[in-house]
Design goal:
This protein is of the alpha/beta class. It contains 20 helices and ten strands.
Length: about 500
């Protein structure tokens, strides 16, 4: 007996019930959805075997071609993993032997609250997704990784769905990692997140999966900004957590959609935190195929008008206009424009991936310059204090006078007389009032006393790293030479990172 079943597929309408407020309105996508009739025969089996292939054919007819993602990101290209590992090993040794001893001697982490762990040195580039709720951040990650319609896709919906900070990273198998486990693992770069408390760690989750793109980059999905919600209602300091991720992100995608262009207090605070990181910001106007060309131009202008007071740069930010989800563009929209914009954004992402080692070396060198300047300043404070002290002087009063008015004693001006020190790199002088309030001046030695017969002088080692070793390592990478693998003896490579929030 044959049973004839006629199924009419209107797949985009089903997708809209599960996707995150995805691009394309229900009316437009329904009009573009093809209809298919599937005949199921229960006694022969020959026609029922064709059912999956016909369904897949219908689904493929509404899915977008993803070949340009693999081509632009060069996912098929083999990487020289050995060269990359050797360069990281060399960078790690330079940091541990030349920069970290100076950090520890002058307690730089007490000033900047940014400890560089081995996990941060070896970590992959981080791409951070920020923006209002339900603008398509999670759908965009699903699209880039090809997770749509798999059991592992990020949950999306028209309502605010993402309440956690989700870190999508590479792993040998697909598994979920709890936030408390991520913070406890010293091999990762997330251990400093413990300072935000257990309430936050419950809102932190990691997802590991074997994926070619995740071998080169890590994605971080954040909770959407809800303007009528106070930070206290989240149970953890949301802005402080965002700042932690912003400081470590190599690329920041700020996503909007045409219906959420208003700027409230929380979004304004977020853009304040992005000050100084304008070169890493990419603004995305998502779900652009919801609009006809004339309306899209108006929305584009409105987005610029909303963001102009928040981004204080002479050059306007680049806004990418497209629709980042796996389904085809709505009909009668600028398909070619959207695809070109998408490829441009992927090229930006690929540039970050290709330059990740150079960026890491530059970051360590910049950190070394800050540590050196901090050591020179502390040395100058110690030297001035010893010069002003006499047998009858009160140490507290003498040092209070120095800290309250460092310009009177030429503390900062004397540092500018040193070579390779820019006035724009000098830290805030008020920060040293707090720094010495915690760390007594008598606990520091002068730089001239920070020398040993076997280890040499700390200042000479960090200056050699800044001027010679790190630039040479960068040059060897650019010239294609393989940096030699070095032993970790006497470098502290095997040390477990200490908790900088626990007093020794």
């Amino acid at each position: 007996m044959k049973v004839l079943v006629t199924l009419c597929f209107v797949v985009p309408l089903l997708v809209l019930a599960t996707a995150e407020d995805g691009p394309g309105s229900s009316s437009s996508t329904a009009a573009s959805a093809p209809a298919a009739k599937i005949e199921v025969v229960d006694n022969s089996g020959s026609e029922s075997e064709q059912e999956p292939s016909e369904e897949e054919a219908v689904l493929e007819s509404i899915l977008r071609d993803r070949s340009h993602i693999e081509e632009t990101l060069r996912l098929a290209a083999d990487e020289k993993a050995g060269d990359y590992a050797a360069a990281l090993q060399r960078l790690r040794k330079i940091y541990h032997s030349s920069i970290r001893p100076m950090e520890q001697a002058y307690k730089y982490n007490e000033l900047r609250q940014h400890e560089i762990s081995d996990g941060e040195i070896t970590s992959k580039p981080m791409v951070l997704f920020l923006g209002p709720w339900s603008v398509g951040k999670s759908s965009m990650i699903n699209y880039l990784l090809g997770l749509q319609d798999t059991p592992y896709q990020l949950y999306t919906g028209a309502e605010p769905t993402t309440s956690e900070f989700t870190v999508i990273m590479h792993g040998e198998k697909i598994r979920t990692v709890e936030g408390i486990v991520m913070a406890a693992d010293s091999s990762r770069s997330f251990s400093p997140l413990e300072k935000f408390g257990q309430n936050f760690l419950e809102k932190l989750v990691g997802i590991e999966m074997p994926h070619k793109l995740l071998e080169r980059v890590t994605f971080v999905d954040t909770p959407g900004i809800i303007e009528n919600r106070k930070q206290q209602e989240r149970g953890y300091p949301f802005n402080d957590v965002c700042q932690w991720f912003i400081d470590r992100a190599d690329l920041i995608f700020v996503v909007f959609d045409p219906t959420k262009l208003d700027v409230g207090l929380e979004l304004e605070m977020l853009f304040r935190q992005l000050k100084g990181r304008e070169s890493q910001i990419r603004i995305i106007l998502n779900k652009a195929d919801n609009l006809v060309t004339q309306d899209l131009m108006r929305v584009y202008g409105a987005l610029f008008w909303s963001l102009a007071p928040l981004i204080n740069v002479t050059e306007p930010p680049r806004v990418y206009v497209s629709s980042f989800w796996p389904y085809d563009y709505a009909p009668d929209t600028s398909r070619e424009l959207f695809k070109r914009e998408e490829i441009s954004l992927l090229e930006d992402l690929n540039q970050v991936i290709e330059n990740r080692l150079e960026n890491k070396i530059a970051f360590i060198r910049q950190h070394g310059i800050r540590v050196r300047i901090h050591a020179l300043l502390v040395d100058r404070y110690v030297q001035t204090f010893k010069e002003k002290m006499s047998f009858f002087s009160d140490p507290e009063l003498v040092f209070k006078e120095i800290v309250d008015d460092p310009d009177k004693f030429y503390i900062f001006k004397s540092i500018l007389a040193k070579t390779n020190v820019s006035k724009f790199d000098l830290p805030n002088r008020d920060a040293y009032r707090d720094f010495f309030g915690i760390n007594p001046i008598n606990s520091f030695k002068q730089l001239s006393a920070q020398c040993s017969y076997t280890g040499g002088c700390l200042l000479e080692k960090i200056e050699k790293a800044i001027t010679n070793e790190l630039p040479s390592l960068l040059g060897s990478i650019n010239s294609g030479k393989n940096p030699t693998l070095s032993s970790c003896e006497a470098t502290g490579c095997g040390e477990k990172p200490k908790n900088r929030y626990r007093r020794n």
